[in-house]
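Hello,

Following up on my earlier ticket. Below are the two sequence lines again, exactly as submitted.
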Amino acid sequence: MPELRKDPITGRWVIIAAERAMRPSDFIRQPAVPTGGRFCPFCPGNESKTPPEVLAYRPGGGRPNEPGWTLRVVPNKFPALRVEGDLNRQGEGVYDRMNGVGAHEVVIETPDHMLTLSELSEKQVEDVFWAMRDRIVDLRRDKRLRYIIVFKNHGAAAGATLEHTHSQLIALPVVPKRAQEELDGSRRYFDYRERCIFCDILRQESDSGARVVLESEHFLAITPYASRFPFETWILPKRHSSHFEASEIPEMQNLGWIERAILRKIDKVLERPAYNLMIHSSPVQEGAMAHYHWHIEIIPKLTNAAGFEWGTGFYINPTPPEEAARFLRDVGLV
Amino acid sequence: MPELRKDPITGRWVIIAAERAMRPSDFIRQPAVPTGGRFCPFCPGNESKTPPEVLAYRPGGGRPNEPGWTLRVVPNKFPALRVEGDLNRQGEGVYDRMNGVGAHEVVIETPDHMLTLSELSEKQVEDVFWAMRDRIVDLRRDKRLRYIIVFKNHGAAAGATLEHTHSQLIALPVVPKRAQEELDGSRRYFDYRERCIFCDILRQESDSGARVVLESEHFLAITPYASRFPFETWILPKRHSSHFEASEIPEMQNLGWIERAILRKIDKVLERPAYNLMIHSSPVQEGAMAHYHWHIEIIPKLTNAAGFEWGTGFYINPTPPEEAARFLRDVGLV
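Thanks for your patience. The regenerated structure is below:
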C-alpha cells in the first residue's frame, strides 16, 4: 500500500510509493561533470568578462579583478533583480506589482574549471560558506532587502547554464511565499508546543536512525520523512539557530566537512547527478527566532516533476527516504 | 528594470525579467512527437496489457476491452494510490501518515498512436473532457475521495513515460496544499469584496486585451499577469462555476474547440513543445462555491526550474506574458 506522509513544517502531502520503489540504478543519467572546451568567464584570466567582484579570497594577496583568487563573488551579468531604484509598489486593477529591486550574485567556488564542489578540499567548501555569510552580512545593511536565498544549480539538468562550479545568491525585497510558509508552519508548532519543530525532528531522527545519512559534531544529515524527491537530503545544525549567517566558527568548519561528505556520497550512489542545493534561513532583517531553524536542502535532479506535482504541490516519490538513507549510509565516507 | 508581480490568488511573487526577454526561438527544443516503433499497451489490439477499462466510448458498439473504441479509460497499471483499504491515519512522533487510498486512471485519448491531442478533431478533444467529467462524477460517489486532479503530461521533458497521447486523473483522500491555497486565497478576496477574483480577472483582462490569447463564446484564454513560466496559458470559463464537472453541454463543446485551438497555437509558436496541462477545480464533495472558479492551466516545458524556484516558490520568468500573448495571438487560428 502506498503511503501518504505529511511534511510537519509546511503541511505538504507526499505519496511514498514503496511498491514502485526505485533504486539508485534506475536513476542513473549522464553524469553532470565539466567538459571544458568552451570559453568560460569564470576562469582566471577572464576576470574582465564578469562585472567587477564584490568579494574575493586571495590568500597570496594580489589586486582585485586579476588572477590569484581562490574564490570570487561577482554580480550576475544578467541579474534577475537590480540594486538601483526604489520599490515603487503599485496596483494595477486586481493585480500588484513593484520594481525588481534586489541583488543577484554569483560565488565562483574555485579557479579550477574542471572540478565540482564535491571535489574541492574541505577548506575550499568551508570558504564557499564563509563567502555566502560575508555577502549576507553585507547585503542585509540595505534595509529594503528582506530575504536572501542562497542556492546552487549543479549540472544542466538542474538549471545551470555555466559549467564552472558556482553558487548563487538572490536578495529579495519581499519574503517569498515558500519561506513564509515554513516560518508560519514552524511558528504554529511552537505556539502549541513551545518547542522548535526542527529540534524535535533532530531528536526523533537521531533516536530512530532510520533516515540518518551522516552525523558530525555540529550537524545531522537526514532524508526527510516526507521527502518530495528520491534521495532528497537535509543538513540540519544541532544547535538551534534561525539564521545561517549566525553560525559560529566551529560550525562553519564542520559544515564544510559534512557538506562535502554528503555530496561525495550522492556522487557515488547516483553516479554524479545534477542537483539543486538551497540554504533555508530566516528573513535577514529579523532577530533570532525560537521557532525557525536554518538548514540546507539538497535535491538530486533524477525525475521530471510533472503536471500533477505543479498542479497540486502533491509529490509522488518512488524511493522511500529510509531506503535512500540506507544507500547513502552504506556507501561509507568516500 | 525587472518587475515583481504578485499572483492575486495564491500570493506568489514572480519576477518578470523583461530585460533578459526570451523570444519563442530561444526555447525551441526537440519537438515532442510520437515516433512509434516500441510496443504500446495503449494501442488497439493490446487491450489485455492494461487493467480492465472503467470507461470507453465505442460509437460503433463492441465489447469491453476489445478494439473498436475511440477513447478508453483504464486504471494506471502502476498506480500512485489504490482504491482498496482504509485511510488508517496515524501519528509517528512529530509526523503524520495515512494509507495511500485513492484512484489513479489514464484516459487514452485516441486509438491512433501517432497523433497528439492537438491533432485530434474538435469532437475528439471534447470527448476527452466528457471522459474526465464522467470519471469524476463516478469517483466522487466514494466519499473518502475529496479532491480529483486531472492532468496531462505531454512529451518526455514534461514527465510522460508513454508517448501514446493520454491524460491522467488522480483522486485523493485529502485536499492538496496548492489547491487549498487557491481556495483560501480566492475566499479571502471574496470575503473582502464579495466578488469572485477570477470573475474580476476575466473582466479586467477582457477590457485590457494585452494578455488575451483567444476568446470564444464561453471561454477566455489568457497568459496570466504573474505567469510563472514563459507562455503559461490559462483557459477560464466566462460563466462563474466552481466545479469543472458542472459544465453545461454548450460549454463542453466550446471547451473542446478552444483547447484544441490553444494547443495548436502553442505547437506553432514553440514548435510542438512538451507541456503540462491541469484542470484546477474544487473539492468534489463540496457544493457550488461563489469564491472559486475552475480553469485550465497549460505550462509549456521550456526551461528547467532550478534551485531558486524550488527553494522559494519565487519564479523568474524571462518572457513577459504580454509578449507571449502577442506571439500566440499573431499566429492566428491554425
